[in-house]
Amino acid sequence: MKHSKLIVTVFALLLMAVLLVACATVPITGRKQLSLISDGEMHAMSFQQYEQVIAESQLSSDAEATAMIKRVGGRIQVAVEKYFHDHGISDELEGYAWEFNLIESDEVNAWCMPGGKVAFYTGILPVCRDDVGVAVVMGHEIAHAIAEHGAERMSHQMAVQMGGMALSEAVKTKPEETRAIYMSAFAVGTHYGAMLPYSRKHESEADHIGLIFMAMAGYDPREAPRFWERMSAGGGGKPPEFMSTHPSDATRIRQLNDHMAEALGYYQ
Ligand SMILES: [Zn+2]
User: How far apart are CA 217 and CA 231, in angstroms?
Assistant: First the structure.
């Protein structure tokens, strides 16, 4: 009798340990998320992928525009590092290897891979217009990475397809399946470097976090709703790529304005 009680207790403790390990917390919003993948594992895959994208892309020869991307990226990076330092969670940025590149392409697109690997396409610059517009996009894309939305999406797929197996285990026993999950989480196979559409929840969260980071970096957050209005109005003949993955609508602009007072508290 005593023995079985002990087994139940041990089992309960083990289950709690697994759930604790499999859970992460999103900075700023405090949302709990499923995490079956370590940062180290995520970064290793992402860095390899990023290197390949950069090697196979034509980088912009526009020195001024390239400098703008690196300048804004560097300032947002400093803001992120300050936020994490001030909240005693700097260890969560361990293994980050920030990089900001501008790719020559008509595509209206930008993204940030896990571990701080950012790419902007020259096609989005007319919508951004200047440093502040770049900061809106930069803050939003870095927020997706900081909030580990890609790892969360992969974790959900692994939970469904592999019964909650951790990535380190899955890589060893099911390398093909693991690769397929990464490819589908980041749409690597179909469209180079481009991200799959994030869920509405992830979009709203990235908007919120991005707004705080751009304000901390010294960019006026009130530019964010104006940027998304330009994005939805613009695009000319063909619908911009960025729009299909980043739906711009009245809800988004209303939600941004809901967070504006909080963001302005960080803006000097
Ligand atoms: Zn997004």
Answer: 22
Distance 207 CA to ligand 1 centre (A): 7
Q: Which of 117, 129, 110, 115 is nearest to 68 (CA)?
A: 129
Give the tokens for residue 184.
């589908």
Q: Ligand 1 centroid vs 8 CA: distance in angstroms? A: 44
Query: How large is the average pLDDT for residues 27-53?
Result: 89
Region 61-70 average pLDDT: 98
Classify residue 41 by burial, with Cβ atoms within 10 Å: 0-12, 13-18, 19+. buried
Task: Write out the two tokens for 79.
Answer: 């803001």
Per-residue pLDDT tens digits for 151-188: 888 888 888 888 878 888 888 888 888 877 877 776 55
Active site residues: 141
Q: How far is the CA of 91 from the centre of ligand 1 (A)?
A: 25
